User: Fold these one by one.
Assistant:
Number 1:
Amino acid sequence: MNTEISTDRAAAVELLERGEIVALPTETVYGLAANALNPVVVAKIFEAKERPRFDPLIVHLPDRDWLDRMTEVPDEDRQLVEKLIDRFWPGPFTIVLSRKSIVPEIVTAGLDTVAIRISVHAVFSEIIHEFGKPLAAPSANRFGRISPTTAQHVLNELDGRIPMIVDAGPTPHGIESTIVAVRHGKINILRRGPITEEELSIFGKIEIRAPSKILAPGQSPTHYAPTTPLRLIDDADLFLTRPSERVALLAWKKSRSGGFPSAGFDTRQPGDHRSLKFVAIRQLSEKQDLREAAANLFRYLRELDQCDLDLIVAERVPEEGLGAAINDRLLRAAAK
C-alpha cells in the first residue's frame, strides 16, 4: 500500500465511506480515523498502530446530537456534564461517560464507558460532518511512540500502513486532549491536556488520582516515547555528560552560554573530565510560554530522536496550567 499525503477532503470522506482508515488533523495531534460504529474497520486502527486491545479509543462526534445516541448520563451528573461541554466543546476536551450498545466493544476495550469529544479543527470538522457518523481517531503513530503534529510525522510512522494522510499543516495545541470523568458531582482528570485543572476547577471539585486499571487513552505508564532513552531533569546547568556520550537537551530554562549550559554551575571534581556540553539543544519556548512549549514538544522530541544520540535530557517545566500536561507527557516518555 502506498500512503498519499493530500489536501483532498472529499477523497478522505470517500475512503472513510469505503471502510478505510485515514489520518486527519485535529487541534491537538494528527489522528488515525475510522468509522467508530464498525468494529471491523476499527480493528484496522489497532493493526496499523500495533496498539494493544486493552487501550480504549476516543470517539469524535459530528455534533452534540450524537451525545445521547452514544452515551448515558446519570441524572445527578447531567447538569455538570452539560456545563462542561457547553464551555469546552468543540475543543480539546474529552469526557468519559457510560456507553450505549451502539458503541462497539473494540472501541472501548470492553469497558462500559466511552471517551468522546468534538474537534474544533476546521478540516476535521468538515470531513466528519460530510461523513455523518462518529469517528474513532487515536493519535496517528505506532503505539507508545511520539504523537504526530504534522503530516510528515504521520508518514514517518505509518507509511505503507494507511492509504491517506490529510495535510493541514502543524497542529495548534501539539498535545492530546484533556480527558475527564464526572462522578457524583466531581471532575476526575484522567489525562492532563490543553484544558487545565485551573479552568476545570471553576465548575466543580477536582480529583486527580491514578485508576487501578486503564479507563481512558494515554494512561499507560510508558507512552509518547522516542526511541532514544529520555531522562527528565530539573536543571540542565547541573547535568554532566561524558565525552563519549552524545546527549541532547530539550530545554525550558534560558540560562545558557553559547548555546550550551556551561555557564554558572560546574560541579565537576578535580580529575573529572566530563563535559557539560550537549550535541543539540531545542528550546521549548523562547518566550517561556507554556502553550508554545506544548505545541513544540512532540516536534522537538522527534527532531532530537533523529540525531543519533545516546540520551535526551529534558528539563521539567513549571507545574502549573498547561505545564502539568507537558510534564505528564515527559514523565511517561522517560518511563521507557
Number 2:
Amino acid sequence: MSHLLAIAGWLVAAAGLTAAVALRRRLDARLEAVARACHELRGPLTAARLGIESLPGVPPASLRRLRAVDAQLVRAGVMLEALANPGARRPGPLERIEPRALLEGSVEAWRPAAQARGMSLSLRWDAGAGVRVWGDPVGLALAVENLIRNALEHGGGAVEVQARRRGSRLVVAVCDEGPGLACDWRRLAARADRGRGTRGRGLAIAAAVARAHGGALRCAPAARGARVVLDLPLSGAPRRARGA
C-alpha cells in the first residue's frame, strides 16, 4: 500500500512539474511577443515625432495640436519601454508640474476623437494662477486621459474637464452628458481587473495614479451623466511617488 501511495505522490508531483514548465513556456512566449511588438512600434513612434518636428510654417492653432500629439507620442514611448522592460521604470523624484498646461494638452490631443463621435470636449479652468502639483507627468496625464477616453466612449453629448482649487488640493472633474455609471466605479474597476469587462479599466488606472500621488479618485453626484473626480494635493515639499 505504501508503495502505491509513493507512486501516486510521484505522479502528482510529475504532473505538477509538467504543468509548471508548460506555463513558464507560455509566459516566456507571451513576453517575447510583447517585447517584439514594442520593438516594432518604436520605429513608427520615432518617425512620427521627427515628422512633427520637421513640419514647416505651422499656424499657431495647428502648432498647439501638434505639440499635444507629440506629447501623446512621448507618453506612448515611455509606456512601451515600461512594457518591454517590466520594473525598469521606477518612480523617481516627482516633478513640479503646471496642471493647467497638462490638462490643456490632454484636451487638445483628444478633441479630434470627440469630434469624430459628434461630441465636444473642453476645459474649464477655475483654479486660478500659479497652481502647481508635484507629480509624475506621464502618470498624471495617463490618469486624466483615461477619464476623458472613458467619457468619450461611454458617455455622450458635451464632455468637460473642470479644474478648481479646494484649499490645499486640486480637484479635476471629467463630466459628460451620457447615461452615467451603471454601478459604483470600484465594482467596474474590480470587474476589469478580473478580465470581466473593459469600462472600469481606465478608472482603475486613474485610481492607482491618484493614490500614488497622495490623492484619490471618486465619483461625484451629477444632474446628468457621469462626473468622475481626480483629487490631488497641491505642491508642497517634494515627495516620491509610491508607485504609479
Number 3:
Amino acid sequence: MKSDSVTVDLRLSGKPDGKVKAFADVTIPLGDDGTITVLGFSVLDGDGRPARVMAPARKGKQAWFDTVQLTGRIRQFVETAVLDQYQRKAKGAE
C-alpha cells in the first residue's frame, strides 16, 4: 500500500477559535477485498503545537476512549494524508 492510496474527505470546522480545526473521514483500500472507511478523525491545531490527527473517540464517564486504533505504517499513511488535506484546505480558506 502507498500513502497516496488513502483518500480523505475533510471538512473544516465552523468554529475557527476552537482547537478542533477539521473533521475527516478516511477510506483505506484493501485491494480486491474492498475498502474500509473510518469516520470521525479530528485535526487539532493550536496551543503553539503542530497540527495533529486524533482518532475517532467516544466520551465515557470520566475520559474519552478511542473507537479505532491504527498502528504501524497505516497510522503514518492516514495521519499524513489527513494533515496534507488539512493544509491544502486551510490555505484555500485564508
